[in-house]
Design brief:
mainly alpha, Amino acid/polyamine transporter I, two-stranded antiparallel sheet, 18 helices, 66% helix, transmembrane helix, AA/rel_permease1, transmembrane transporter activity, Amino acid permease
């Protein structure tokens, strides 16, 4: 079936067997969606966020976290409305496809693809740091640890949706229990003034340690707050993955908004507690945490000593594992949706004949993320790569996320303006102003991210990926499109109700 003249795209007829080989199973309710959203993010409360102390000090980190929370509130309320109105696995790509056409949908999906392929790679570097610290493995063997963890958690996601969601629920609850245990443990061991405020500014403008504390809340001023925004993103990054579970949700129009909003409320409370307590523990401090790959473990060690370091390390690993597991889930669905519609090679969207999970998409996505890690590792050398790979990958993931957020917020605004006829079971209380705030904060965050010296190293890989996939879509993909649920909805201008295949 050809498109009208001038569109430059062609839809190919497929038979019922095409969608039969790409079937998904409905399982998730509100609780499962909540666990999926919180689990995807929770690793950011265990590692990554703390690098912001080096650019903003404690007060800069707190205020940056608040600004980023506003951005995510605007985003999550927007996608809560869109996911109920367009309950398709495509999520960001689906929203942008309906609002901005095929190329808009493709580029939005590509931005989100960078986020979900690279974020597991970031998390596994933190996991490896914890494992090396606990077991005493020489960091030179880190690639082996990466491969082992990817293999285990891709397999868990492949062998059944119900198993995947049950694992997600269990490790998310354990992760939150670990954080609550740490909060309760930390409160009697706090010295906020001496340790949280122990960062000053040296002659070269870099952070220096104040042994007696008592420093400024904002040692780098307001510019330090803005420079800390990319690190604060790690406190909430990936909550937006929930709409990718739309076709595996029992009632996405009702449950998806509830799951997203409950997840965001949980994360805001946890983020505030960890930013307040982790650097305030006696013997830790903001300065030490500003370069730590295992901040929560540092806090637990300071409270309980080294005698139980193995047990404490295993406990501290849970949050990282929760996010690693759930983002591999999201990665598979994101690749699956673009492939099912023909934007990516269509073979990637075939689901497992028994378990009905997008196993090909998850395996290929994991292989790409792992390949990027190995290329960086061997091109830089083990010693240099060990100290920079986490930051390089984090910049790649955050840049992809920011572009995706801008596109999703723009899609929300356009759909509010141009598609008033679409049924909206849920409406964002923040409306268009919330979406505008998301765009503004995301643009500012990108602007300050560019100043990170590791940004250029990471963004070059992102540009290469964009060039390769844009060439594929321009030359091949757009001539092999399929009327998937996302495409059918967009083609009809939102008039065709969603139909499950």
């Amino acid at each position: 079936m050809a498109e009208p003249t001038g569109t430059g795209a062609t839809y190919q007829q497929v038979d019922a067997d095409y969608f039969a080989k790409r079937g998904l199973t409905r399982y998730a309710g509100v609780a499962s969606l909540w666990a999926l959203g919180v689990g995807a993010v929770i690793s950011g409360h265990f590692s990554g966020w703390n690098f912001g102390f080096a650019t903003g000090g404690w007060g800069g980190m707190l205020v940056a976290g608040m600004i980023i929370a506003v951005m995510y509130l605007g985003l999550t309320f927007s996608i809560a409305e869109m996911s109920a109105a367009l309950p398709h696995t495509g999520a960001a790509y689906s929203f942008a496809r309906t609002a901005m056409g095929r190329w808009g949908g493709f580029f939005t999906g590509l931005c989100e693809n960078v986020e979900y392929v690279i974020t597991p790679a970031v998390i596994v570097t933190f996991i490896t740091s914890y494992v090396n610290s606990i077991v005493g493995i020489d960091p030179i063997y880190s690639p082996i640890v990466w491969i082992v963890f990817f293999a285990i958690f891709v397999a868990l996601n492949v062998f059944g949706l119900e198993l995947s969601f049950k694992v997600t629920m269990v490790i998310t609850l354990i992760s939150l229990a670990v954080l609550i245990f740490f909060w309760i443990s930390a409160i009697p061991h706090m010295d906020f003034n001496k340790f949280a405020l122990n960062i000053g500014v040296g002659p070269d403008g870099a952070a220096v340690e104040l042994p007696d504390g008592g420093g400024s809340w904002f040692p780098f001023g307001f510019s330090g707050v803005l420079a800390t925004l990319p690190f604060a993103v790690w406190l909430f990054l990936a909550i937006e993955q929930l709409p990718l579970a739309a076709e595996e949700s029992v009632d996405p129009k009702r449950d998806m908004p509830k799951g997203i909003i409950l997840g965001m409320c949980t994360l805001m409370l946890s983020a505030f507690m960890i930013v307040l307590l982790n650097p305030s523990v006696i013997g830790v401090g903001s300065f030490k945490l500003s370069t730590s790959l295992e901040p929560l473990l540092d806090g637990l060690r300071a409270i309980y000593g080294d005698t139980g370091v193995v047990l404490l390390g295993v406990v501290a690993l849970t949050g990282l594992i929760a996010s690693f597991h759930t983002i591999i889930y999201a990665q598979g669905r994101q690749i699956y949706s673009l492939s099912r519609a023909g934007y990516f090679p269509r073979g990637l969207s075939v689901t497992h004949s028994k378990f009905k999970t997008p196993h090909v998409a998850m395996i290929v996505g994991a292989a790409v993320g792992l390949s990027v890690m190995l290329i960086i590792w061997f091109s830089l050398g083990a010693e240099q790569a060990g100290s920079t790979i986490g930051s390089v990958l984090l910049n790649m993931a955050v840049s992809g996320a920011m572009f995706s957020y801008i596109a999703q917020a723009a899609s929300f605004i356009l759909l509010r303006k141009n598609a008033t006829h679409i049924e909206r079971p849920y409406r964002s209380p923040l409306g268009v102003p919330g979406a505008v705030a998301t765009i503004v904060i995301a643009v500012v965050t990108l602007g300050y991210q560019v100043q990170d010296p590791n940004f250029t190293k990471g963004v070059l890989w992102v540009l290469v990926w964009f060039a390769v996939m844009t060439a594929y879509f321009g030359l091949v993909g757009r001539h092999k499109l399929v009327l998937s649920p996302e495409e059918k909805f967009a083609q009809s201008g939102g008039k065709d109700a969603y139909e499950s295949h």
